[in-house]
Amino acid sequence: MEFLVSDAAPDEFFFMEMNTRLQVEHPVTELVTGIDLVEWQIRIAAGEELPLTQDDVVLTGHAVEARVYAENPEAGFLPSTGRILELAEPSGEGIRVDSSLLPGGTVSSSYDPMLAKVLAWGADRGEALDRLDAALAATVVLGVDTNVEYLRLLVGDDDVRAARLDTTMIERKLPELAFRHVAPRGPRARRRPAPRGRTGSGRRIALAPRRRLPARDSPTTRRDPGGGRRHRDGPAPAHARRMDRNGRQHRRLG
Hints:
By secondary structure, this protein is of the alpha+beta class. 19% of the residues lie in helices and 28% in strands. It has 2 domains: 59 residues, no CATH class; 182 residues, ATP-grasp fold, B domain (D-amino Acid Aminotransferase, Chain A, domain 1, 2-Layer Sandwich). Helix 3 packs antiparallel against helix 4.
């Protein structure tokens, strides 16, 4: 069941929809309850009984989910496709990332453009949003357009932080958002620049791809000791050079 609830008047709520499946935002519930919903779906399907009642469920703190999409918010959220050239995902206290991304993987038009879910838990809404902003700043997906910068702009918006939300907010806010701009790409550019991307923190990245991408080995799985999430490792198919906002001080990443 999904409802819209007013932060100023919690007794006022509006029904949105009902889905007979696990919600995309189920990690938010897991972070504030400590209950693994997917695990219990499987255990109940195997014949086990749920060992708790609704009164046993205790909500602790606040959690926020940001969905990282392969899309261009400045172009009406037009989906983006391509190969993942470089990838960095955040970790740390209160941070959770649900992702199947691998360097060298291909984002096609055959599937939904959602790439990952970045979540942050905090003792209150403010702490959760601060942690989410820091996590998005550490999120790097190069090779396709993403909405990471757009998400950070929303997280920093006064209305969003104060939970003054409504169904027309995106339409109203989008024209006012101060997106950073990089060098133009495409057939109209006088010179074709090296492939570019931006990290969530606004750092510009210039990529120098290899002539041939190596065959992707079987990925391995490792557990991050800080955030407790699982990462899948694969070979990076590109070299990257990092530069500051003025294009100086190149150095190789990775």
